[in-house]
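hey m, so remember when u said the tokens were messed up on ur end? i reran from scratch. heres the input so u can diff it against urs
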Amino acid sequence: MGQPTHAQKEWWRSAVIYQVYVRSFADGDGDGTGDLAGVRSKLPYLAELGVDALWFNPWYQSPMKDGGYDVADYRAIDPAFGTLAEAEKLIAEARELGIRTIVDIVPNHVSDQHHWFQAALAASPGSAERELFHFRRGRGPDGELPPNDWPSQFVGSTEPVWTRLPDGDWYLHLFTPEQPDLNWAHPAVRQEHEDILRFWFERGVAGVRIDSAALLAKDPELPDFTEGRDPHPFVDRDELHDIYRSWRAVADDYDGVFVGEVWLPDTERFARYLRPDELHTAFNFSFLSCPWDPDRLRTAIETTLAEHAPVGAPATWVLCNHDVTRTVTRYGREDTGFGFVTKAFGTPTDLALGTRRARAAALLSLALPGAVYVYQGEELGLPEVDVPRDRIEDPMYFRSGGTDPGRDGCRVPLPWVAGAPYAGFGSQQEPWLPQPAEWSAYAADLQAADSGSMLALYRTAIGLRSAFGDGPLTWLPAPEGVLVLARAGALCAVNLAETPAELPAHTQLLLSSGPLDTHGRLPKDTAVWLRT
């Protein structure tokens, strides 16, 4: 086949990457939980969708106290999902269809069932086994108070980030007690994770997504938290960059790619993670959380491109993922932005409005320069589900005292076949999260036969996306409330104003998120792709 071209080697700069939450994607063995057999059975669907890569949320052995982000063994697939041999087959079969694989690494912490932590629990205070984590004596006359006052990384949580053992030691966990934080100042921690990267690159994965990428390093003194203090005791510390430079050296041996989950308000510090010898890409959360507002969307796009430009890294665009409210629901609410602190039960939404906006947003995101991530079910226009409280599993709900609805509403198992049991998810028993009664109406088989469906829109848009070429973005003059951007020989116009807008000059209408009005104008909350 010859040597890969430069464009092939840098596929990640403009890829469409589909996020697979295995537990909810498709059930191959009928036990109520999605698995690798289910994913393998749907590879033709994903190939027809036209995606370039699949990003898998953690599929490793885990007690599932936080949806798999509590990893017990990185070199084993969780039995609920399958086996390592099946993962290897999936990686190879996807690649034969032109689809690469990205796995998820959770370096900040491990499961409390990980053999390192079990050894630390069995050891005594001050032991070498405990040096792999953050064990400390407590404060107060009898050590009865936590070593410091750091806040939980679960927004809204009132729970402490320290747990005390019977021998008097406390251990740090920025998330749940079942997720003890690793001590990244210890060389064994760094070596183990570099070995894990090699393990998966050698099995054919093309890239690695890094969870909570800015949290690994901690101030060795573990001081109390002071708002605004610089440097922060556990977020975005300078020593992180040496870790990622070492990781980049490993990835370069395999032409591997990194994408970091980096939530930072400081754009200059964010860009540091994307220097040529560190991470290739990072998630763009400003676009994801942006309200459906023309000025704020344009600002989010311009800011994102500007912060990536100095380091030559491609931007990434995402409307939704496994942690946030689904797009059609969010865009149908009065507050169309996203923030963890604003999540609440019973928030009303207009799904027809939200769906119209989500269709337009899909065309906008796919027209932008860089890589696009599509969370499973977004191509079906799935809404957020109000999961009954007695079925919620997400620790965010429990650690908030039941005030935060958690993230399970965007993780409900997918509908594949209308009229089949459990909407064709594949289960012979009720899936791990309940599906609403109307779920079959969103089934992939129905949408595949409907040229006006959300699925048809995504398939067509992904297929036509190359019309925008590789060039930069240029904003064209437009009426107030209308965004018009041009790239190469195509442009995208999105109408967020209250009245219809005239189409920009063009030679061909490539695609529209909805019908034009009777005068050929672009209605409110509608987008078009035009050839110039």
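this time it looks ok to me. The radius of gyration is 23 Å. if urs says something different then somethings off w ur setup not the seq
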